Amino acid sequence: MSNKLRIGVVGCGGILEWAHFPAYMKMDNVELVAFCDILTERAEKFSKKYFEAGKTDKKPAVFENFSDLIKMEGIDAVDICTPNYLHSIVAVEALENGLHVFCEKPDAVSVSEAERMKAASEASGKVLMIMRNQRYDNSTRYLKDRIAEGKMGEIYAARCGWQRRRGGPPHGSWFSKKEESGGGPLIDLGVHMIDRTMWLMGNPKPVSVSGCTYNVFGDNGSGSGLLPEGTKSTFSVEDLAMAFVRFENGACLQVEVSWASNVKTDDIFFELRGTKEGAVQNQNTKGRLTVVSADGDFNPDLSAYSEAQGHEGNIRHFADVVLNGAEPMFVPQQGINMVKILEAIYKSAETGKEIFL
Ligand SMILES: NC(=O)c1ccc[n+]([C@@H]2O[C@H](COP(=O)([O-])OP(=O)(O)OC[C@H]3O[C@@H](n4cnc5c(N)ncnc54)[C@H](O)[C@@H]3O)[C@@H](O)[C@H]2O)c1
Predict the structure, then answer these.
(1) Handedness of CA 78, 80, 82, 84 (dihedral sign)
(2) Whose CA is nearest to atom 33 of ligand 1?
(3) Of 1, 138, 199, 271, which residue is the least packed, with the fewest Cβ within 10 Å?
(4) How far is CA 191 from its chain centroid?
(5) pTM for the full model?
């Protein structure tokens, strides 16, 4: 391997544009060597931009087919930014061809796929990491340290959610087609909040799940009004999910996520209940973190946690793990546990029963 990590990106849409690419533009220990998209003009656009910014001496290769990118000379890793159903397909092929993998969330659209990804990583000895950008937010890192110092006691219960009043994907988007996305706001937004909360709870093992999902607004959940006349709905996922998860250590987690729901306002929130202190953060209260206890509440100073946050923090960590052998903060078993929870919520919603994992 050269002293830079040579990455090829598969899927050149929204998340590459606003999160991954800006991070790579700031990084010096990574070189983007290829871009792939079935819409090759998108791959070409990023290749040109990266080259013209002087980030590389050689214009990154452009591919339409991800198998060609995986097999190219001089590539160490792939960054997967495709629709969800392709995550495990691209990841397993890349791992089997000796590449490290960084992949967008959700880990996979089924437990068996997440297990195949873990097995392929173990067989090849290559790193497999899934985006967990919320672990890199300053408030999450602050709380992780505070919990590790024992100040909050044991975290035995939590709530989290991401609620949109009207904020679904545009009509016809892959996000709203079950066969391409694996689900609606639960797999899209819930995965972030569930991971953030479970990470702070110390990643307890989930043992049972109960959930309900609803599809009330469908394609109209984007807030754009009724579908144009003669247009058929392609919306085959939920627009609201509510769930309750129990863990092996007796802790529990309540989850609420929506793309469309008659709630007063949009909100992104999580709340921890610890034996010594609690913590709460709501987008509604301008995202300020509050630590709560019998001695009074306070908004902690997060200035010591201002280094690379969110997606950039996570991508930098991936490079550090591959290049310098840093201790990975994500291991594939956490991905399997995550998909087990998501899958069980859908199964519980379908059967009307609590699912035991
Ligand atoms: N971590 C986050 O905060 C966050 C936010 C948004 C999206 N995401 C995730 O990122 C992934 C991509 O989402 P997006 O919003 O960028 O979607 P998008 O639709 O904007 O982009 C996906 C791209 O993949 C391309 N594509 C489709 N099939 C392909 C194939 N076979 N080979 C190569 N390219 C292919 C599409 O043409 C498109 O350009 C999803 O898994 C999504 O869940 C994560």
Answers:
(1) positive
(2) 37
(3) 1
(4) 6
(5) 0.97
Cβ(13)–Cβ(43) under 8 Å?
Answer: no
Ligand 1 atom nearest 16 alpha carbon: 16
pLDDT of residue 159: 98
230 C-alpha to ligand 1 centroid (Å):
28
Category of 118 on φ-ψ map: left (φ > 0), alpha (ψ -120 to 50) or beta: alpha
Q: Cα–Cα distance between 11 and 167 in angstroms, integer?
A: 23
Strand order in the sheet with 61-63: 61-63, 30-36, 5-10, 77-80, 100-103, 128-130
Angle at 74 between CA 316 and CA 31, to 5 degrees: 30
pLDDT confidence of residue 153: 98
Specify the residue with its C-alpha closest to ligand 1, atom 15: 14
Packing angle between helix 111-124 and helix 87-96, nearest 10 degrees?
Answer: 20
Residues with CB under 6 A from ligand 1: 10-15, 36-39, 42, 66, 81-84, 86, 104-105, 131, 133, 188
Distance from the alpha carbon of residue 290 to the mean position of ligand 1, in angstroms: 34
Residue among 60, 58, 97, 62 at smallest CA distance from 77: 97
Structural domains present in the chain: 5-132+312-328 (3.40.50.720), 134-309+338-356 (3.30.360.10)
Strand partners, 269: 161, 282
Positions of the chain with pLDDT under 50: none
199 within 8 A of 335, measured Cβ to Cβ: no
Residue 39 alpha carbon, nearest atom of ligand 1: 37
Show the tokens assigned to 344.
């069980």
Residue nearest atom 31 in ligand 1 by C-alpha distance: 38
State residue 2's pLDDT score.
62
